[in-house]
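Fill-in record for Lysophospholipase L1-like esterase.
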Amino acid sequence: MRAITRSFLLFAALLIGAELLTRFAFVRTMEGRFDYGYHPTVGFVEKPDGKVELQRAGGRRFFPQTFAQQRPEGTYRIMVIGDSVARGKSVKESYAGQLEKQLRAQGIQAECLNLGLPGYGARRKDIVLRQVMKYQPSLVILHVGMSNEYEDERESRRRDDFNSPHPKNWLMRSLVLRQLYEMKTEKIYWQWLPNTVRNQSGVSDANVELLATSDENTQREWLERLQKVTQDGLQRLQAARIPTLLVVQASNTKKEDGQGGILLDDRVTDSWTAPLTSDLVARVTMKSVIPPTQVTALYTDSNHVRPEGHRLIAEAIARTLKDKGWLPAPGIVK
């Protein structure tokens, strides 16, 4: 019993020490850690010198980028908000990076920032949009799709659960214990677990998502929410007179079109986004950009495209901006 008591006291002392160290030494890096992307500002680090750093923190896995909080004179600032499709493999290879390269080749001092975040649905993209509007964008590009509403729903429940006063969450008030829990959830030590444990967890999560995405009522609720959140965001942007371009997601059905190509499907987002266009809202659909004969070569799975696909999207965006008259003359910013 005495040995057990000593062991318990030692464990308690180590836990308390780790907790104090975490709270005092790493409190800034823990900001928004358990809001799962629903924190309004986490990931946007505003520096004393007027710069903003995009960082991986608090459920936001931004590509590291730095920009001035106040848009520099003569700069055409484009901010791309989306999920992993818009994010791409890197800033350079994404359509944000390739659009910047194309516009700069035309003599336009473009600054294209990639704010694509894996697993982000309408609600969490809208939170990013609210913050982005502070930084004087010349143009906002919003990638619209419905493949991540399950993730938004799941992370919202996790946030609410952790912040509830229920006794089951009392131990989770410890930042150390929360971090250990998150390490399991994010599979940081996944490779050290037995295959049976990994497989069971993976199958369980996949089954839950499959049930949710196959339920018609759930799909209807998600679509209604996607429409409302998108429309509300556009209203805020139009009230601020910020031009906006929607990139409409199209999924690879892997079904032949009978003409040597593959069918793309954007029915979920196409019909209701088309009427949203106006003098301040433009639209580019991936279905119109990716040739059916190139779907197999350009798509890596049902939704994501290779860098060449991003290049085609960037070219379509540049053409649309020119047609709308939104592009400034070289050296001039509207």
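KEY FINDING: The chain has twelve helices and ten strands.
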